[in-house]
Protein backbone atom coordinates (compact mmCIF):
# COMPACT_ATOMS: atom_id res chain seq x y z
CA UNK A 1 0.00 0.00 0.00
CA UNK A 2 1.31 3.43 -0.92
CA UNK A 3 2.45 5.64 1.95
CA UNK A 4 0.85 8.99 2.72
CA UNK A 5 3.33 11.82 2.17
CA UNK A 6 2.07 14.42 4.63
CA UNK A 7 5.17 16.63 4.68
CA UNK A 8 3.37 19.60 3.14
CA UNK A 9 0.10 19.25 5.02
CA UNK A 10 1.96 18.97 8.35
CA UNK A 11 3.37 22.42 7.68
CA UNK A 12 0.36 24.23 6.28
CA UNK A 13 -2.42 22.23 7.98
CA UNK A 14 -2.01 23.61 11.52
CA UNK A 15 -1.63 27.13 10.12
CA UNK A 16 -4.87 26.82 8.13
CA UNK A 17 -6.66 25.57 11.25
CA UNK A 18 -5.17 28.50 13.15
CA UNK A 19 -6.68 30.88 10.59
CA UNK A 20 -10.05 29.09 10.79
CA UNK A 21 -9.95 29.24 14.60
CA UNK A 22 -9.05 32.91 14.51
CA UNK A 23 -11.88 33.72 12.13
CA UNK A 24 -14.61 31.77 13.94
CA UNK A 25 -13.47 31.48 17.58
CA UNK A 26 -10.93 34.19 18.48
CA UNK A 27 -11.95 37.27 16.52
CA UNK A 28 -12.95 39.04 19.74
CA UNK A 29 -9.31 38.90 20.90
CA UNK A 30 -8.35 41.40 18.21
CA UNK A 31 -10.95 43.81 19.55
CA UNK A 32 -10.33 43.36 23.26
CA UNK A 33 -6.61 42.57 23.76
CA UNK A 34 -3.50 44.67 23.31
CA UNK A 35 -1.23 44.03 20.37
CA UNK A 36 1.39 42.35 22.59
CA UNK A 37 -1.22 40.02 24.08
CA UNK A 38 -2.54 39.20 20.61
CA UNK A 39 0.96 38.26 19.38
CA UNK A 40 1.61 36.09 22.45
CA UNK A 41 -1.82 34.44 22.15
CA UNK A 42 -1.25 33.71 18.46
CA UNK A 43 2.15 32.16 19.25
CA UNK A 44 0.50 29.96 21.89
CA UNK A 45 -2.29 28.96 19.50
CA UNK A 46 0.13 28.10 16.70
CA UNK A 47 2.53 26.18 18.96
CA UNK A 48 -0.33 24.24 20.54
CA UNK A 49 -1.84 23.58 17.11
CA UNK A 50 1.38 22.12 15.70
CA UNK A 51 1.93 20.07 18.87
CA UNK A 52 -1.59 18.63 18.94
CA UNK A 53 -1.51 17.93 15.20
CA UNK A 54 1.64 15.83 15.54
CA UNK A 55 0.44 14.04 18.68
CA UNK A 56 -2.84 13.09 16.94
CA UNK A 57 -0.87 12.09 13.84
CA UNK A 58 1.45 9.83 15.86
CA UNK A 59 -1.46 8.15 17.65
CA UNK A 60 -3.39 7.59 14.42
CA UNK A 61 -0.39 6.07 12.66
CA UNK A 62 0.30 3.82 15.65
CA UNK A 63 -3.30 2.60 15.60
CA UNK A 64 -3.05 1.94 11.86
CA UNK A 65 0.05 -0.19 12.41
CA UNK A 66 -1.53 -2.10 15.29
CA UNK A 67 -4.91 -2.56 13.57
CA UNK A 68 -4.10 -2.47 9.85
CA UNK A 69 -6.45 -2.76 6.90
CA UNK A 70 -10.08 -2.01 6.16
CA UNK A 71 -11.32 -4.88 8.32
CA UNK A 72 -9.91 -3.20 11.45
CA UNK A 73 -11.32 0.28 10.78
CA UNK A 74 -13.92 -0.17 13.51
CA UNK A 75 -11.25 -0.89 16.14
CA UNK A 76 -9.23 2.16 15.14
CA UNK A 77 -12.32 4.38 15.37
CA UNK A 78 -13.19 2.96 18.80
CA UNK A 79 -9.71 3.75 20.05
CA UNK A 80 -9.83 7.24 18.57
CA UNK A 81 -13.14 7.87 20.30
CA UNK A 82 -11.74 6.56 23.59
CA UNK A 83 -8.61 8.72 23.33
CA UNK A 84 -10.44 11.87 22.21
CA UNK A 85 -11.26 13.13 25.77
CA UNK A 86 -7.61 12.67 26.77
CA UNK A 87 -6.32 14.49 23.70
CA UNK A 88 -8.69 17.46 23.90
CA UNK A 89 -7.96 17.95 27.61
CA UNK A 90 -4.25 17.71 26.87
CA UNK A 91 -4.67 20.39 24.18
CA UNK A 92 -6.66 22.60 26.59
CA UNK A 93 -4.00 22.14 29.29
CA UNK A 94 -1.00 23.11 27.16
CA UNK A 95 -2.84 26.24 26.05
CA UNK A 96 -3.53 27.17 29.66
CA UNK A 97 0.11 26.57 30.58
CA UNK A 98 1.19 28.71 27.63
CA UNK A 99 -1.00 31.59 28.76
CA UNK A 100 0.25 31.24 32.33
CA UNK A 101 3.85 31.46 31.13
CA UNK A 102 3.54 34.20 28.50
CA UNK A 103 0.57 36.21 29.77
CA UNK A 104 1.05 35.50 33.49
CA UNK A 105 -2.56 34.37 33.75
CA UNK A 106 -4.79 31.65 32.29
CA UNK A 107 -6.57 32.79 29.15
CA UNK A 108 -9.91 31.41 30.31
CA UNK A 109 -11.61 31.80 33.63
CA UNK A 110 -12.36 28.56 35.41
CA UNK A 111 -16.04 28.41 34.56
CA UNK A 112 -17.87 25.43 33.14
CA UNK A 113 -19.15 27.38 30.15
CA UNK A 114 -15.66 28.61 29.20
CA UNK A 115 -14.21 25.13 29.66
CA UNK A 116 -16.87 23.40 27.55
CA UNK A 117 -16.49 26.09 24.87
CA UNK A 118 -12.74 25.48 24.69
CA UNK A 119 -13.20 21.70 24.72
CA UNK A 120 -15.73 21.95 21.88
CA UNK A 121 -13.18 23.82 19.77
CA UNK A 122 -10.55 21.15 20.50
CA UNK A 123 -12.95 18.37 19.58
CA UNK A 124 -13.46 20.07 16.22
CA UNK A 125 -9.69 20.36 15.67
CA UNK A 126 -9.02 16.73 16.61
CA UNK A 127 -11.83 15.47 14.40
CA UNK A 128 -10.09 17.29 11.55
CA UNK A 129 -6.79 15.59 12.44
CA UNK A 130 -8.40 12.16 12.54
CA UNK A 131 -10.37 12.68 9.33
CA UNK A 132 -7.22 13.71 7.45
CA UNK A 133 -5.07 10.78 8.57
CA UNK A 134 -7.66 8.05 9.01
CA UNK A 135 -9.60 9.14 5.92
CA UNK A 136 -6.49 9.07 3.75
CA UNK A 137 -5.54 5.68 5.20
CA UNK A 138 -8.96 4.16 4.50
CA UNK A 139 -8.90 5.57 0.96
CA UNK A 140 -5.42 4.16 0.31
CA UNK A 141 -6.36 0.80 1.87
CA UNK A 142 -9.49 0.60 -0.27
CA UNK A 143 -7.49 1.48 -3.39
CA UNK A 144 -4.84 -1.11 -2.49
CA UNK A 145 -7.49 -3.79 -1.89
CA UNK A 146 -9.18 -2.93 -5.19
CA UNK A 147 -5.87 -3.12 -7.08
CA UNK A 148 -5.00 -6.43 -5.39
CA UNK A 149 -8.38 -7.89 -6.30
CA UNK A 150 -7.98 -6.76 -9.89
CA UNK A 151 -4.48 -8.23 -9.95
CA UNK A 152 -5.76 -11.52 -8.55
CA UNK A 153 -8.57 -11.61 -11.11
CA UNK A 154 -6.08 -11.09 -13.94
CA UNK A 155 -3.78 -13.73 -12.46
CA UNK A 156 -6.66 -16.15 -12.12
CA UNK A 157 -7.72 -15.63 -15.73
CA UNK A 158 -4.13 -16.05 -16.90
CA UNK A 159 -3.79 -19.12 -14.70
CA UNK A 160 -6.96 -20.62 -16.19
CA UNK A 161 -5.71 -19.92 -19.70
CA UNK A 162 -2.35 -21.54 -18.93
CA UNK A 163 -4.17 -24.45 -17.35
CA UNK A 164 -6.23 -24.94 -20.49
CA UNK A 165 -3.08 -24.78 -22.58
CA UNK A 166 -1.51 -27.45 -20.41
CA UNK A 167 -4.68 -29.54 -20.25
CA UNK A 168 -6.14 -29.72 -23.71
CA UNK A 169 -2.94 -30.64 -25.43
CA UNK A 170 -3.74 -31.36 -29.10
CA UNK A 171 -0.56 -33.42 -29.36
CA UNK A 172 -1.67 -35.65 -26.47
CA UNK A 173 -5.18 -35.94 -27.93
CA UNK A 174 -3.74 -36.84 -31.33
CA UNK A 175 -1.52 -39.54 -29.79
CA UNK A 176 -4.44 -40.91 -27.76
CA UNK A 177 -6.65 -41.16 -30.84
CA UNK A 178 -3.77 -42.69 -32.76
CA UNK A 179 -3.35 -45.33 -30.07
CA UNK A 180 -7.10 -45.92 -30.11
CA UNK A 181 -7.05 -46.39 -33.87
CA UNK A 182 -4.42 -49.12 -33.56
CA UNK A 183 -6.24 -50.81 -30.69
CA UNK A 184 -9.49 -50.98 -32.63
CA UNK A 185 -7.80 -53.25 -35.16
CA UNK A 186 -5.53 -55.17 -32.78
CA UNK A 187 -7.52 -55.44 -29.56
CA UNK A 188 -11.16 -54.26 -29.73
CA UNK A 189 -11.84 -55.09 -26.06
CA UNK A 190 -8.88 -53.04 -24.90
CA UNK A 191 -9.96 -50.28 -27.29
CA UNK A 192 -13.32 -50.13 -25.51
CA UNK A 193 -11.60 -49.79 -22.13
CA UNK A 194 -9.30 -47.15 -23.64
CA UNK A 195 -12.31 -45.09 -24.78
CA UNK A 196 -13.69 -45.21 -21.22
CA UNK A 197 -10.38 -43.94 -19.86
CA UNK A 198 -10.25 -41.13 -22.45
CA UNK A 199 -13.77 -40.00 -21.60
CA UNK A 200 -12.96 -40.12 -17.88
CA UNK A 201 -9.77 -38.10 -18.37
CA UNK A 202 -11.31 -35.40 -20.53
CA UNK A 203 -14.42 -35.13 -18.38
CA UNK A 204 -12.15 -34.39 -15.43
CA UNK A 205 -10.06 -31.97 -17.49
CA UNK A 206 -13.05 -29.92 -18.59
CA UNK A 207 -14.50 -29.83 -15.07
CA UNK A 208 -11.25 -28.84 -13.38
CA UNK A 209 -11.50 -25.10 -14.08
CA UNK A 210 -14.78 -24.87 -12.15
CA UNK A 211 -13.15 -25.58 -8.79
CA UNK A 212 -10.11 -24.28 -6.96
CA UNK A 213 -9.48 -27.52 -5.07
CA UNK A 214 -10.19 -31.21 -5.34
CA UNK A 215 -9.72 -34.09 -2.93
CA UNK A 216 -6.56 -36.13 -3.15
CA UNK A 217 -8.79 -39.17 -3.66
CA UNK A 218 -10.32 -37.69 -6.84
CA UNK A 219 -6.95 -36.50 -8.10
CA UNK A 220 -5.41 -39.94 -7.62
CA UNK A 221 -8.35 -41.60 -9.34
CA UNK A 222 -7.91 -39.22 -12.27
CA UNK A 223 -4.15 -39.69 -12.52
CA UNK A 224 -4.61 -43.47 -12.63
CA UNK A 225 -6.98 -43.08 -15.59
CA UNK A 226 -4.58 -40.65 -17.23
CA UNK A 227 -1.72 -43.04 -16.62
CA UNK A 228 -3.60 -45.87 -18.31
CA UNK A 229 -3.61 -43.81 -21.51
CA UNK A 230 0.15 -43.35 -21.20
CA UNK A 231 0.59 -47.03 -20.38
CA UNK A 232 -1.31 -48.01 -23.52
CA UNK A 233 1.06 -45.93 -25.60
CA UNK A 234 4.39 -46.56 -23.84
CA UNK A 235 3.79 -50.00 -22.34
CA UNK A 236 6.56 -51.23 -20.04
CA UNK A 237 8.51 -48.01 -20.59
CA UNK A 238 6.55 -46.20 -17.91
CA UNK A 239 5.26 -47.11 -14.47
CA UNK A 240 3.34 -45.48 -11.62
CA UNK A 241 3.71 -46.25 -7.90
CA UNK A 242 1.22 -44.77 -5.43
CA UNK A 243 1.72 -45.06 -1.67
CA UNK A 244 -0.85 -42.84 0.07
CA UNK A 245 -2.56 -43.79 3.32
CA UNK A 246 -6.36 -43.58 3.43
CA UNK A 247 -6.34 -40.85 6.10
CA UNK A 248 -4.87 -38.41 3.57
CA UNK A 249 -7.44 -39.01 0.83
CA UNK A 250 -9.76 -36.22 1.97
CA UNK A 251 -6.95 -33.65 1.95
CA UNK A 252 -7.10 -31.23 -0.95
CA UNK A 253 -4.83 -30.03 -3.71
CA UNK A 254 -5.40 -27.91 -6.83
CA UNK A 255 -6.92 -30.03 -9.63
CA UNK A 256 -4.66 -31.37 -12.40
CA UNK A 257 -1.55 -30.93 -10.27
CA UNK A 258 -0.52 -34.56 -10.66
CA UNK A 259 -1.31 -34.58 -14.38
CA UNK A 260 0.98 -31.61 -14.97
CA UNK A 261 3.81 -33.28 -13.03
CA UNK A 262 3.44 -36.60 -14.86
CA UNK A 263 3.25 -34.80 -18.20
CA UNK A 264 6.40 -32.88 -17.29
CA UNK A 265 8.22 -36.13 -16.45
CA UNK A 266 7.17 -37.77 -19.73
CA UNK A 267 8.21 -34.72 -21.72
CA UNK A 268 11.76 -34.47 -20.38
CA UNK A 269 12.84 -38.08 -19.86
CA UNK A 270 13.83 -41.08 -21.97
CA UNK A 271 11.46 -44.05 -21.62
CA UNK A 272 12.55 -47.53 -22.63
CA UNK A 273 11.35 -51.00 -21.57
CA UNK A 274 14.73 -51.73 -19.96
CA UNK A 275 14.95 -48.20 -18.52
CA UNK A 276 11.38 -47.35 -17.56
CA UNK A 277 10.32 -43.95 -16.27
CA UNK A 278 8.95 -44.55 -12.77
CA UNK A 279 6.71 -41.91 -11.21
CA UNK A 280 6.20 -42.29 -7.45
CA UNK A 281 3.50 -40.57 -5.41
CA UNK A 282 3.82 -40.73 -1.63
CA UNK A 283 3.30 -38.82 1.61
CA UNK A 284 5.98 -37.10 3.66
CA UNK A 285 4.71 -35.48 6.84
CA UNK A 286 1.78 -33.31 5.74
CA UNK A 287 2.99 -33.00 2.15
CA UNK A 288 2.48 -34.93 -1.06
CA UNK A 289 5.73 -36.00 -2.73
CA UNK A 290 5.87 -36.69 -6.48
CA UNK A 291 9.19 -37.91 -7.83
CA UNK A 292 10.63 -39.67 -10.83
CA UNK A 293 13.97 -41.07 -11.89
CA UNK A 294 15.95 -38.67 -14.09
CA UNK A 295 16.73 -39.97 -17.57
CA UNK A 296 17.25 -36.78 -19.51
CA UNK A 297 16.74 -36.87 -23.25
CA UNK A 298 19.91 -36.32 -25.26
CA UNK A 299 18.21 -33.65 -27.32
CA UNK A 300 17.19 -30.70 -25.11
CA UNK A 301 13.42 -30.32 -24.90
CA UNK A 302 12.02 -26.85 -25.51
CA UNK A 303 10.16 -25.93 -22.34
CA UNK A 304 8.21 -22.80 -21.37
CA UNK A 305 7.84 -24.06 -17.76
CA UNK A 306 4.05 -23.68 -17.99
CA UNK A 307 3.41 -26.88 -16.01
CA UNK A 308 5.49 -26.15 -12.91
CA UNK A 309 4.74 -22.41 -12.87
CA UNK A 310 1.05 -23.28 -13.27
CA UNK A 311 1.15 -25.37 -10.08
CA UNK A 312 3.14 -22.72 -8.20
CA UNK A 313 0.64 -20.03 -9.27
CA UNK A 314 -2.29 -22.13 -8.07
CA UNK A 315 -0.81 -22.46 -4.58
CA UNK A 316 0.05 -18.76 -4.48
CA UNK A 317 -3.50 -17.80 -5.47
CA UNK A 318 -4.78 -20.04 -2.68
CA UNK A 319 -2.60 -18.19 -0.18
CA UNK A 320 -0.65 -21.37 0.57
CA UNK A 321 3.11 -22.07 0.90
CA UNK A 322 4.89 -22.52 -2.41
CA UNK A 323 5.83 -25.92 -3.77
CA UNK A 324 9.36 -27.30 -3.41
CA UNK A 325 11.26 -28.48 -6.50
CA UNK A 326 14.50 -30.40 -6.10
CA UNK A 327 16.89 -32.33 -8.35
CA UNK A 328 19.43 -34.62 -6.68
CA UNK A 329 20.74 -38.18 -6.63
CA UNK A 330 19.32 -38.84 -10.07
CA UNK A 331 15.77 -37.99 -9.00
CA UNK A 332 13.41 -35.11 -9.73
CA UNK A 333 11.25 -34.35 -6.68
CA UNK A 334 8.32 -32.00 -6.18
CA UNK A 335 6.86 -31.52 -2.68
CA UNK A 336 3.27 -30.22 -2.58
CA UNK A 337 1.57 -28.86 0.58
CA UNK A 338 -1.60 -30.77 1.41
CA UNK A 339 -4.53 -28.55 2.35
CA UNK A 340 -7.04 -29.43 5.04
CA UNK A 341 -10.48 -30.72 4.09
CA UNK A 342 -12.01 -27.26 4.64
CA UNK A 343 -9.22 -24.82 3.77
CA UNK A 344 -9.49 -21.08 4.11
CA UNK A 345 -8.32 -19.67 0.82
CA UNK A 346 -8.00 -16.24 -0.77
CA UNK A 347 -9.03 -17.25 -4.23
CA UNK A 348 -11.60 -15.05 -5.87
CA UNK A 349 -14.64 -16.94 -7.04
Automatic annotation (TrEMBL):
<dbReference type="InterPro" id="IPR050640">
    <property type="entry name" value="Bact_2-comp_sensor_kinase"/>
</dbReference>
<feature type="transmembrane region" description="Helical">
    <location>
        <begin position="77"/>
        <end position="95"/>
    </location>
</feature>
<dbReference type="Pfam" id="PF06580">
    <property type="entry name" value="His_kinase"/>
</dbReference>
<keyword id="KW-0418">Kinase</keyword>
<keyword id="KW-1133">Transmembrane helix</keyword>
<dbReference type="GO" id="GO:0000155">
    <property type="term" value="F:phosphorelay sensor kinase activity"/>
</dbReference>
<dbReference type="InterPro" id="IPR010559">
    <property type="entry name" value="Sig_transdc_His_kin_internal"/>
</dbReference>
<keyword id="KW-0808">Transferase</keyword>
<feature type="transmembrane region" description="Helical">
    <location>
        <begin position="12"/>
        <end position="31"/>
    </location>
</feature>
<feature type="transmembrane region" description="Helical">
    <location>
        <begin position="37"/>
        <end position="56"/>
    </location>
</feature>
<keyword id="KW-0812">Transmembrane</keyword>
<dbReference type="GO" id="GO:0016020">
    <property type="term" value="C:membrane"/>
</dbReference>
<keyword id="KW-0472">Membrane</keyword>
<feature type="transmembrane region" description="Helical">
    <location>
        <begin position="115"/>
        <end position="133"/>
    </location>
</feature>
<protein>
    <submittedName>
        <fullName>Histidine kinase</fullName>
    </submittedName>
</protein>
<feature type="domain" description="Signal transduction histidine kinase internal region">
    <location>
        <begin position="160"/>
        <end position="236"/>
    </location>
</feature>
Amino acid sequence: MRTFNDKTIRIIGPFILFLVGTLFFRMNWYLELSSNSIVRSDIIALAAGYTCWNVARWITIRLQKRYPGLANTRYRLIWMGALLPVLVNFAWTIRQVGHMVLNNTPQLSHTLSNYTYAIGIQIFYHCVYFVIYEGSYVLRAWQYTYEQNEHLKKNKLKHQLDTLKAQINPHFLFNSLNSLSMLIHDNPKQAEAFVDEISSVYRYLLRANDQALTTLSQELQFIKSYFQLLKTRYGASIDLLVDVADRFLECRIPPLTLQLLVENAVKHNVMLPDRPLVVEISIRGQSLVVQNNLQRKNTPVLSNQVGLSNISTKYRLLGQPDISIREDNGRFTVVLPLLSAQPETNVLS
